Protein: glucose-6-phosphate 1-epimerase
Amino acid sequence: MGHSATVWDQKSEFEVTKDWNGIDQVVLRVPRGASARVSLHGGQVISWRNERGEELLFSSSKAIFKPPKAMRGGIPICFPQFGNCGSLEQHGFARNKMWSIDDDPPPLNTNDGSERVSVNLLLKPSEDDLKCWPHCFEFRLKISLAMDGDLTMISRVRNINGKPYTFSFAYHTYLSVSDISEVRIEGLETLDYLDNLVQRERFTEQGDAVTFESEVDRIYLGSPNVIAVLDHEKKRTFVIRKEGLPDVVVWNPWEKKSKSMVDLGDDEYKQMLCVDGAVIEKPITLKPGEEWTGLLELSAVPSTYCSDHLDHFRRN
Structure:
């Protein structure tokens, strides 16, 4: 298996395997049975399963698993931009680069104390990257699986340049849902959002929850640090907790756009929903030596426990 490490006991460990293209993948497992799989192509979480082995992230049956294209599904890392502007490829280059395992990361203060199995990844710019985005950075990504199966991702971007630079960022999270028409998002009500379907025009959310009956592509601004995605049919709620990520992207391509996407099945929009912790409206500017941190934590809980779970997160 190559690089293998035991972290809290014999049953909590990560190991490195290879996919069918020969690209390294890191597998995280905890004793109760939850697992996560991370591809070093893009530093992308491509699987997150609960203790019953149920897949919680969506991946398209038509996904292209071969570099240089990012896989359609999981949690691609969008850096140093979200969207499509300037000379950079859409959503930036981080999701299309080979990351390395960081065996000696600098300390990270999480003050959490809970047991978890983790892997630390590192991305530095190549000469080609510097031609299209001439800024030196170190991007460290820590991916952790807690004993209860919660998935945490912590990104740290450090400016090792001689001058300031600016970037935007998103964890482009594809959640697996039973039927998009039965899903609602709570926590975004009354917020302003930019609508990508009408040139980022600004609107205010009027509903008591976000629901879906057509294509949606929005950037909600100044969002709370905890939001919930309720899947009525599965009686499952995704609790999304975030720090350093003021914006939330909500995207579902719906029927017409899905048919135009080569790496998405025509009807697969029904089983997916992207809800991204992001920094888009007011990009991050780092001076030389400065570091930015953005945290995302995903939990999947039975909907009957949802209100208690949300209260717990909001108190902490």
Summary: The domain at 4-315 is CATH 2.70.98.10 (Beta-galactosidase; Chain A, domain 5). The chain has one domain: 4-315.
